[in-house]
Structures are given as structure tokens and as C-alpha cells.
Design a protein that fits this description.
The complex is a heterodimer of chains A (461) and B (83). Chain A is α/β, with parallel strands linked by helices and 461 residues long. Chain A has helices at 12-24, 70-78, 82-85, 108-118, 123-135, 147-152, 158-170, 181-194, 203-216, 259-265, 352-358, 362-384, 399-406, 441-456; strands at 2-8, 28-31, 43-46, 49-52, 87-89, 92-97, 100-104, 197-199, 220-222, 227-233, 236-242, 247-255, 279-288, 299-305, 319-327, 341-350, 391-397, 430-432. In chain A, strands 1, 2, 9, 10, 11, 12 and 18 form a 7-stranded mixed beta sheet that branches. In chain A, strands 7-6-14-15-16-13-17 form a 7-stranded mixed beta sheet. A two-stranded antiparallel sheet of chain A has the order 3-4. With 83 residues, chain B is mostly helical. In chain B, helix 1 packs across helix 3 and helix 1 (3-17) crosses helix 4. Classes of the chains: A alpha/beta (461), B mainly alpha (83). The interface between A and B is medium-sized, with 14 and 14 residues.
């Protein structure tokens, strides 16, 4: 089979890349290993109910007037109108640490006020930091720089550094206890200065919209179609071999499956993955709707650390409960209140190897999952109040679940600590897009797909 | 295509990219990007639409010649003569 352009991976970056390609090219083919698109941000059904896999909230909220904001740029590039998405903004999110909490919302002034109030000595320092961040160019090429070290040159209070880092690391760091400063600049803007929202409906509505767009432009999606290897000749890609042995020849190849995952398809041994990866466990509690009034009414996400200093590293235990994220997806503005149940979701750091060892015995693995779910609600109840009596159903995604459904090695949702910002991994007609290109979150990964295709393929046609 | 047809074509493409674009005070000798607040991604789409609609191959090094409405028209006039 012959295609003009092949995109590997039907996550949000792959869908966005394929839409751009299909808008201006014939014969664009998107290959997705799983039976459903979405990658990390997909959905599944249990008890006749749809559950989202990854989505807590989408960063980069922007009003219509902010024409050059990432969100609006991306909608223009994909020819999607704002009405097709529907926006529900967050109410408040909270950074909850021992003895001190900071609130933030889609109005950046709130975070500044909160810092003035709780850390009055840091007011000027924070203002200086924000002024410099506003001038920083996160797209200029530079090697890794420690955000902790840079923040330390502005802010004296280590607690405040930890608190500013906590949401940023949980929503996008593939490094332990720190993040590359370029990525911090992007995340600071997308998380604190722009803010959080949910699209109307569920992630399925957004995915269906993207699939419809791709079909509208004549692109093709093949689900349940894994790639066994990428065929290259010197520095040129000739095509791919599918897991069923079929060969597809192509002129351009975009890979959104990750850096090491792509290199593996090019023939690198698996052992070449040297760096430690950060894995998480995500737990969903479906709770009786009567509990809604007992849980926080105005908190969208709570990023917590129950210990000081805040640590963000691969835990020695199977899961570490010292810090994490609590997502209350019913707390967004203007959501339809008529629901049969609500969800509480938690995210914590996990140890991939330990889960892997346990998985050798199916019963032990199932028991561990249950034990984890029980521990997760016990750990977060002191923060949001009791809800365990109302749990109707719970499920958790271990690093193994993530690896199995998304192909992300070690279930590391933020990918490799090594990022390839120009998308070039040494081949003439292969572009890397998505998480390991370095843009983060749903909006970031879609912009990655768009900008890599624009830069390396469309502008060269 | 006449010069006026080409101008209409460019404006139509821009309107398709940004339905709120205002052309009333457009100075044909000043950069489109500044006046219409277009970014490089929008600009690429102008080029891509010309390629899609009229099979025009515009190499990257010629992009600067598309800066203003008049320079666009000058550049495209010989290419779209038969269109």
C-alpha cells in the first residue's frame, strides 16, 4: 500500500497533525494501535457509563479576543469554531500544603493576591519573576536548565518554590523534582496565566470532532493497527511495516509515539532507554450524587503535598501518597447539574517496576489495585472530606494500564526526559511530534502536531 | 485573473482564516501581517490555500514577496494570468 503521509499514533498530537496534512494533501493515513483514538486522553465504558481516561482539565484557556493565544491559534489551524468545543472554565484550583494553601483561577490576579497574602515578603520577588517570565522565549533552543535553581534566584522562601512547582510538575514534568526551565515557562503561562477549562460533554465529543474533521479533509484512520517497524534506507524513511506484516510506503512520516518508542521501531534495542521515567497511578471514584454537597463546591483541582519539602520522584513503594492531584470534574462553571453520580479522581506517583513484578500474578495484581484504591480515598479524605461511603464504583489505571493502552514505555505519561524541540531525529522525512517534542497537555500536544507538520512538511511542499 | 480578481482572492482566503478580519482600512502597501494581526501560522495557510486552489508552488524563499496586498498581486499576476 502507498500513502502520501503516514502519522503513527492517534492521540491528540497525531490527530492534529493528520488534520493539517489532510487539509493540504491527498492520501493521509493515521495509524492507531488501540481500537479507539485519543491516546492518553481517551475513554472507556463500564456499567453503561463513559469514563474519561486522562482528562482532569485542559490548560491554556483563552477568551476569543486573545487571537494569538495557543488555544485560538490551534482552533484556526484546524478550522474548528469555539462553538464546536464549548467552554466550561474552572472555578478555583488550590495548591494545598501543610499550613498554607494558595488558590488560583483563570484570573491570574488571584494567584498574585494569594501570594501577597500568604508570603508577603515574596510579593516583590514574585512580581519580578513574572515580569521576567513574560519576556522569556521558551522556543529559543537551549539545553536543560533547572527551574528550581532559577526560581531560587528570585524567591527566598523554599515553600513557595515548592508550591509553584507542584501543579507544574504534576501536569507536565518528566524530570524528578524539577523541570526544564523552557517547559516551566510554557506551563506557567498555560496553567497559571491562562488557566483551566473543560470542553462541553466529554473527551469523546472532542475526539469525535477531530475524527470528523480528518474524514472531512479526506484523511483515513486505521484503528487497531500497530506498527512493527519503520523501514529506512540511510537517512530516508521508505515506509512502515504493520504488526500484521503489511507494508505501507510513504513520502512523509510523522511519529507521535515518543522518542524512544520511535527509535525502537527504527531498530534501536529496548535497553537503550537509560533514563528513569516517572509513572503515575490514576484512580477514579464514581460517587453517589448526594455527596456533591458534602465535597468542596468550588475547587476544580487540588494539587497537594502532605509533607515538606515537596518531592516528585519515582517512589520506593508501589504508590507514594505524600503528594498528588485531586480532580473534582463536576466543579466547572455552567456544567449541567442534572447528573446521576459524580466523580472524584486522584493522581499519585507510582513505581512501574513494582507494579510490573506484581502483575506476574493476576490475583495479586487485582488485590493491589483494590488496596491502592482504598488507600487513595483514605489519603485524600482529610483534604476534601469523607466520601468513601458513597463510592459506587472505582477503578485505577496503573503504569501498566497506561503502557498497555497507550504504548508509553513504563506508562510514563509525560514521556522521556529528553525532548527534541525541532522534531528532527536525524531522518530527512521523519518528524517527531507530541509529548517528546516538548509541548505539553492537550493544547500543547495538538500544537506540537500542527507546528511540526507546518514547519517540516507543509512549508516544503 | 485580473489584478482585482487576485486581490479579491487574497482577501477571501484571509477571511476564511479569520472571519473577523477587517479590510476597510487596509493599506495595500503596508504589511498584511501587521494590519490584520496575522501570525506565521496564518500566513502559511495563505500560501497553502493558493497551492490548493490554484496549484501554485510558492517556495519558502518567495514568502517575503507576499508581504503586502500589492506585492502579493505583483507576484501572483504572472502566475495566475491563465487562471
Amino acid at each position: 500500500m502507498q500513502a502520501n503521509c503516514v502519522v503513527i499514533g492517534g492521540g491528540l498530537s497525531g490527530l492534529a497533525a493528520a488534520i493539517r496534512l489532510a487539509r493540504y494533501n491527498d492520501n493521509v493515513l493515521l495509524l492507531e494501535k488501540h481500537s479507539r483514538v485519543g491516546g492518553l486522553n481517551s475513554y472507556y465504558y463500564r456499567n453503561n457509563r463513559l469514563f474519561e481516561t486522562g482528562l482532569h482539565a485542559i490548560t491554556n484557556y483563552a477568551d476569543k479576543a486573545a487571537k494569538h493565544a495557543p488555544l485560538n491559534k490551534l482552533l484556526r489551524q484546524l478550522k474548528i469554531s469555539r462553538d464546536e468545543i464549548g467552554f466550561h472554565q474552572q472555578i478555583f484550583s488550590e495548591i494545598n500544603f501543610p499550613d498554607v494553601s494558595l488558590l488560583f483561577s483563570n484570573n491570574f490576579a488571584l494567584l498574585t493576591e494569594q501570594i501577597n497574602e500568604n508570603f508577603p515578603k515574596e510579593s516583590n520577588n514574585f512580581r519580578r519573576l513574572v515580569a521576567d517570565l513574560d519576556q522569556a522565549d521558551p522556543f529559543a533552543s537551549s539545553s536543560y536548565r533547572s527551574t528550581r535553581a532559577i526560581l531560587g534566584t528570585y524567591i527566598d522562601e523554599p515553600r513557595l518554590i515548592d508550591m509553584l512547582l507542584c501543579p507544574v510538575l504534576y501536569y507536565g514534568s518528566s524530570w524528578e523534582n524539577d523541570i526544564d526551565f523552557k517547559q516551566f515557562v510554557i506551563m506557567f503561562r498555560s496553567l497559571y496565566q491562562e488557566g483551566l477549562f473543560r470542553p462541553a460533554g466529554t473527551i469523546k465529543n472532542l475526539l469525535d470532532l477531530l475524527v470528523d474533521k480528518l474524514n472531512h479533509y479526506g484523511g483515513t484512520i486505521k484503528l487497531g493497527t500497530g506498527v512493527r517497524d519503520i523501514i529506512s534506507k540511510g537517512e530516508k524513511i521508505i515506509g512502515v511495516t504493520l504488526e500484521n506484516g503489511e507494508r505501507i510506503f510513504c513520502k512523509h512520516l510523522v511519529s507521535t509515539i515518543g522518542l524512544d518508542e520511535t527509535k525502537f521501531l527504527l531498530g534501536s534495542p529496548k535497553e537503550s532507554r537509560s533514563e528513569r521515567r516517572l509513572s503515575f497511578v490514576e484512580t477514579i471514584f464514581q460517587v453517589e450524587k448526594g455527596y456533591r454537597s458534602r465535597l468542596p463546591q468550588d475547587r476544580t483541582c487540588i494539587f497537594y503535598s502532605r509533607k515538606r519539602p515537596f518531592t516528585f520522584e519515582q517512589p520506593a513503594d508501589i504508590v507514594c501518597y505524600d503528594s498528588g492531584v485531586i480532580s473534582l470534574p463536576f466543579n466547572f462553571h455552567d456544567l449541567d447539574g442534572d447528573v446521576d453520580s459524580i466523580e472524584v479522581r486522584t493522581t499519585q506517583l507510582a513505581n512501574y517496576r513494582k507494579w510490573q513484578l506484581a502483575a506476574a500474578d493476576a490475583d495479586r495484581y487485582a488485590a493491589l489495585k483494590q488496596a491502592h484504591s482504598d488507600e487513595a480515598w483514605r489519603q485524600v479524605e482529610p483534604i476534601i472530606g469523607p466520601f468513601s461511603d458513597g463510592i459506587m464504583f472505582s477503578d485505577c489505571f496503573t503504569p501498566l494500564t497506561v503502557e498497555r493502552y497507550t504504548g508509553k514505555h513504563a506508562g510514563a505519561i509525560y514521556g522521556s526526559p529528553q525532548k527534541i524541540s525541532d522534531g528532527n531525529i536525524g531522518y530527512d522525512n521523519l518528524v517527531l511530534a507530541g509529548t517528546d517534542q516538548g509541548f505539553l497537555g492537550i493544547i500543547g500536544s495538538m500544537l506540537s502536531g500542527i507546528s511540526m507538520v507546518n514547519r517540516h512538511i507543509l512549508s516544503k511542499l | 485573473m485580473t489584478r482585482d480578481d487576485i486581490k479579491d482572492l487574497i482577501l477571501e482566503i484571509i477571511e476564511d482564516i479569520d472571519d473577523e478580519a477587517e479590510f476597510d482600512d487596509l493599506d495595500p502597501d503596508k504589511p498584511l501581517r501587521d494590519q490584520l494581526d496575522l501570525d506565521s501560522m496564518d500566513f502559511l495557510d495563505i500560501v497553502m490555500e493558493l497551492r490548493k486552489r490554484h496549484k501554485l508552488q510558492i517556495p519558502e524563499e518567495d514568502y517575503p514577496q507576499l508581504a503586502t496586498l500589492n506585492s502579493c498581486t505583483n507576484y501572483l499576476e504572472p502566475l495566475l494570468k491563465e487562471a
